[in-house]
Amino acid sequence: MQKTMKALVKARKGYGNMEVWDVPVPKTGDDDVLMRVWGSGICGTDVHIYQDDYRAYEEGLIIGHEFSAVVEAVGKNVRRVKPGDRVVSCLETREGTMGNDHVNGCHAEYVVMPENQVFRIPDNISMKEAIMIEIVAGVIYQGLTETLDIQPGDFVVILGSGPIGLMLLQGVKLRSPGATVITGLKDDGVRVEMAKKIGPTYFFYNDEEVTGRVMELTNGIGADVVIECTGSEEGINQAIAMVKKSGQIGNFAVYNQEKVSVNLSEVTLKCLNIKGLWGFHEYSDPDLRPYGGAVSYRNALRIASLGALSLDEMITHEFRLEEFEKAFEVCRNREGIKVIFRHGWTYEGDS
User: Is Zinc found in the keyword set (predicted)?
Assistant: First the structure.
């Protein structure tokens, strides 16, 4: 087996400063699984690391946490998977979060993770679709099932038609809502097309007086649930304005600026319940840290295997690792939905 590999690294603090390095293939401990990465997805967090408005990382970190792979080798204590198995892995470890802080991530030819975070891919899910499992886990299972309380018949608004918003729309539709609304920008192009294809009850562009339209459609009551995915000051204030009294707001956005101005008096007067939907539940005990993510991944694979989600259609662009500047430009310009890196090899017919 080769001793070095290509990896996308955040070399230094500051905007950009990403480079493809030749680094050692990670070592496999007794309880670890070494995986050959088939493909990896660029998450919004990766873009924030590129832009340096998410700064929890250490310099020299291999970024990335959405991927599918094939098991290359296992430690002597590993029993659940074997070389040749198609797998995905949760991003949470006892030491930290893969590709976000100081635990090396998956924008590389190989990645290693503990066995208890690695899961076999069901036969009816392709390697390409499996790259999306992290989003299913964090958005549909953890964000909707574990955090928000969406009831059949609820009027649900999703602000923003990026990858998270589009996955949320699919998840909300599985819960028999009374009506769904999703918003987008007029220059969002393929994202707007995908949103309309998924089939919300209503689609509005951001400049169409969305709050007024929602209030009109709900007879002045407001939406039961509003989920903010725009990452803008306007978006979170829209959510507060259009949600009903005692309604729920799910905040799935990360903001480029450190502070945003929010009308907190409305939060008080309307008795609002605002919940952060950032990924998986955290545990203060490091021994329990990976538990929330592992449960979410197992359930996400079950959800995806039902065949009710459009996963491969959300992947609109593929690049080689060395083309990372082009890939990040597509993400920053909102020219696609999900952008992935491919490493140029196939597995049992997956393309």
Answer: yes
